[in-house]
Design a protein that fits this description.
Layout: E1 2-5, H1 17-38, E2 44-47, H2 52-62, E3 71-73, H3 76-90, E4 97-98, E5 101-103, E6 111-113, E7 118-119, H4 126-129, H5 132-145, H6 147-155, H7 160-176, E8 183-188, E9 200-208, E10 211-214, H8 221-242
Parallel strand pairs: 1-2, 2-3
Antiparallel strand pairs: 4-7, 5-6, 8-9, 9-10
Protein name: Malate dehydrogenase
Family: Belongs to the LDH/MDH superfamily. MDH type 2 family.
InterPro entries: Lactate/malate_DH_C (IPR022383), Lactate/malate_DH_N (IPR001236), Lactate_DH/Glyco_Ohase_4_C (IPR015955), Malate_DH_type2 (IPR010945), NAD(P)-bd_dom_sf (IPR036291)
Length: 243
């Protein structure tokens, strides 16, 4: 019923994401072919191994019998980090922080969306408390974008336990629903927010009845769109490398 694909060539200290592309394309192509042969047509597939978005695309092309809506890549870890940072700043519990979204690629070009986030009971906007666009651009967004690399630099290993918790969050919500809460999933782009390229792109979604729908009421503006287009450009470059 569920496949969680973590078996990628590991990212190591000093290793660029593009170094992973060709190493992992063959891995996920073979996994996709195997899934296409023997798996249920309604299987849910979560790609965790990096570069996760592009690995999901490779897998989807190798498994044409599996609907693309049944394939997603993990960006919940980034969302959890962003949510925790906001909760820490406001001195509240993490469940009070809502409408946090990760857009784009699971990489250093991702857009952690503080602008649309809401803290229950707070009288001030998240963006204002976090210091406005300047502080977001110079401090908070890079902190989330580069957190994975910082952990590898400190531990010489990736953040395995945090990733495991995020996997559980992702699968639980996908199967049982997110109870109306916005969560982040990298899914095949359907034209929402102008992203109509053949890529797996992280969007804000709501999960219900074993599926998901992309939330359509997030305001991006020029600030958010700049980041989103940078992330899309990276995904298109990755796609051109391996296709």
């Amino acid at each position: 019923d569920v496949a969680i694909l973590v078996g990628a060539f590991p990212r190591k200290q000093g290793m660029e994401r593009r170094d992973l592309l060709l190493r992992n394309a063959d891995i996920f192509r073979s996994q996709g072919e195997a899934i296409d042969k023997v798996a249920k047509r309604n299987i849910k597939i979560l790609v965790v191994g990096n570069p996760a978005n592009t690995n999901a695309l490779v897998l989807s092309k190798a498994a044409p019998g599996i609907p693309r809506r049944n394939i997603s890549a993990l960006t919940r870890l980034d969302q959890n980090r962003c949510t925790a940072l906001i909760a820490q700043t406001f001195n509240v519990e993490v469940h009070q922080v809502e409408r946090v979204a990760i857009w784009g690629n699971h990489s250093a070009t991702q857009y952690p969306d503080f602008v649309n986030a809401v803290v229950t009971g707070a009288t001030k906007k998240v963006m204002d408390v976090m210091g406005g666009h300047l502080m977001l651009a110079n401090e908070h967004i890079p902190f989330i974008q580069k957190r994975g690399a910082a952990i590898i630099a400190a531990r010489k290993l990736s953040s395995a336990m945090s990733a495991a918790a995020a996997i559980c969050d992702h699968i639980r919500d996908w199967i049982y629903g997110s109870d109306g809460r916005v969560v982040s999933m990298a899914v095949f782009a359907d034209g929402s927010y102008g992203i109509d390229e053949e890529v797996f792109f992280s969007f804000p979604v709501v999960c219900s009845n074993g599926g998901f729908s992309i939330v359509q009421d997030f305001h991006l503006g020029d600030f958010g769109r700049k980041y989103i287009h940078l992330s899309l450009d990276e995904l298109l470059a990755e796609r051109s490398e391996i296709m």
